[in-house]
Specification:
This protein starts with 15 loop residues before the first helix and ends with a helix. The radius of gyration is 33 Å and the shape is elongated. By secondary structure, the protein is of the alpha+beta class. The longest helix has about 45 residues, at about 80-120. It has helices at about 15-30, 60-65, 80-120; strands spanning about 30-40, 45-55. It is built from 3 helices and 2 strands.
């Protein structure tokens, strides 16, 4: 009786997890940058330019490189969202104070004008 030939597994189960984890750890520790540009020209006229940049790194490594845009994006950071809401509230309070002072000044001016108009009749 013959046994069927055994082919090597496409995804070996032994040791591959450790290798993948090691590779991922190295990539996140060192960081990797993938950059590319796409340009579409027609008769030497640039119609479209797309610049793609992909950085894969740990958050700590990204901060070391000076990349921290997610900290100021309200869609990604609750702290940034709170700062934006506080800024908007301060602007609205200032605008309300301006409108109320303008209204108070307008009421005084219009009240004076009405009295003058009444005396002229």
């Amino acid at each position: 009786m013959s046994t069927p030939a055994r082919f090597p597994d496409a995804y070996p189960s032994e040791g591959s997890g450790a290798n993948l984890a090691d590779i991922l750890e190295r990539v996140l520790d060192k960081g990797i940058v993938i950059a590319g540009d796409i340009r579409i020209n027609l008769l030497d006229i640039e119609l479209l330019t797309i610049k793609l940049r992909l950085i894969v790194a740990s958050i700590d490594k990204a901060k070391e490189m000076g990349i921290d845009w997610w900290e100021d994006d309200p869609a990604l950071s609750s702290g940034a969202r709170r700062r934006e809401i506080a800024r908007e509230n301060a602007e609205l309070k200032e605008r309300i104070a301006e409108l109320e002072s303008a209204r108070a000044a307008g009421t005084t001016a219009s009240g004076t004008k009405e009295k003058k108009a009444h005396f002229d009749d």
